[in-house]
Amino acid sequence: MTYQEVLENARTCMGPYCKACPACNGMGCRNTMPGPGAKGIGTGFIRNYQKWQELCVNMDTICENKEVDTSYELFGHRFALPVFAAPVGAMQLHYGDKYDDLQYNDILVSACAKAGIAAFTGDGTNPAVMEGAVQAIRAAGGAGIPTVKPWNMELIREKMDGCKSSGCFAIAMDIDAAGLPFLKNLQPPAGSKTVEELRQIADYAGVPFILKGIMTVEGAKKALKAGASAIVVSNHGGRVLDQCPATAEVLPAIADAVGGKMTIFVDGGIRTGMDVFKALALGADAVLIARPFVTMVYGGGAEGVQVYVDKLTAELKDAMAMCGAHSLKEINPSMLFSK
Predict the structure, then answer these.
(1) Under a CB-based contact definition with an 8 Å cutoff, are residues 235 and 265 in contact?
(2) What is the pLDDT of residues 11-27, one digit of tens each?
(3) 65-to-111, 278, 316 alpha-carbon distances in Å
(4) Is the pTM of this model over 0.85?
(5) According to the annotation, is 46 in a ligand binding site?
(6) SS3 state of residue 74
(7) Rounded to an integer, what distance in angstroms lies between the CA atom of residue 124 and that of residue 89?
(8) Does the structure show a pLDDT above 80 at 315?
(9) Could you give the domains of the chain?
(10) Residue 197: partners with Cβ closer than 8 Å, 6 or more residues away
């Protein structure tokens, strides 16, 4: 299958919120909650996408002519690209009846591992969601990163015990999920966590702990103090707080503050290998991509995932070669145009 064929096929089985648009930019699903659209006036998702498009790159081909290497190492594991599938949950509520969370993770985790990258998996109020994710990661030889919601401490430990049994090489928490409606008013309470609570969680993880949902320099410093090995600069796709800045806007300052001290991921509106290049030039070590992987699974299953990874690889290699970078470490801010 081609990328276009996968996209067209996805349109036959997705919806009503996600429409598998040619450009996944938040316009078609604007202000659809629940669903992939952003909260409030619906501009959070749109802004994330637009800010990557506004960045321009500096072409420079006066350099040595040699092969481009897109490989990336994370916590002792080598991947084909600095790209990971982001955690996504409530598949049937948001994207259509074709797959539930367990079926989606079964396809995504194994397909990503086969394609040379790894998937983050989601969590939910139904315990079977995390249990299924753990099974999928275990079946893939630990090649996945389970993502735990910020439940109360007792439930977090229980879920992390399951995560550890998968053989995963890292565990994440999307701390910004504290703003999701289904986490509010729970007994025992779930939601925001203090630095001390996060330090306890990081220690309990027993593997590198990744904190997703960082949007400020102060938040990044708190994550570092809490013992996180990595952060994801993310506003949850604009779905938890209206009128946040785009992740591309806050990334450079965060990278300046904690870069080299911890791994920095970024997500939000990243769609192409060119976007990946721009993110790395702004200071990220790697990126997470969510909705396009959903579209690829719905439209082409495991084959769709491979088609998308191949597309990202070709685009990233082209951007690197045309800007004079032959390895990820050579990508730097000077490769972005500034007036």
Answers:
(1) no
(2) 999 988 999 999 999 99
(3) 33, 22, 16
(4) yes
(5) no
(6) strand
(7) 7
(8) yes
(9) 72-328 (3.20.20.70)
(10) 153
Kindly report the backbone phi and psi dihedral angles of residue 281, in degrees, each rounded to the nearest multiple of 5, phi listed first: -65, -30
Which of these is catalytic: 77, 94, 236, 326? Answer: 236
| 267 known ligand binder | yes
Rounded CA-CA distance 306/1 in Å is 10
pLDDT-derived band at 115, boundaries 50, 70, 90? very high
Please give the single-letter amino acid code of residue 171.
Answer: I
DSSP string, 153-173: HHHHHHHHHHHHTTT-S-EEE
d(CA 69, CA 317): 8
Structure tokens at 146: 């389970």
Mapping DSSP onto H, E and C, the string for 251-299 reads HHHHHHHHECCEEEEECCCCCCHHHHHHHHHCCCCEEEECHHHHHHHHH
**Annotated binding-site residue? 239:** yes
77 among known catalytic residues: no
Give the Cα separation of 38 and 30 in Å (integer). 6
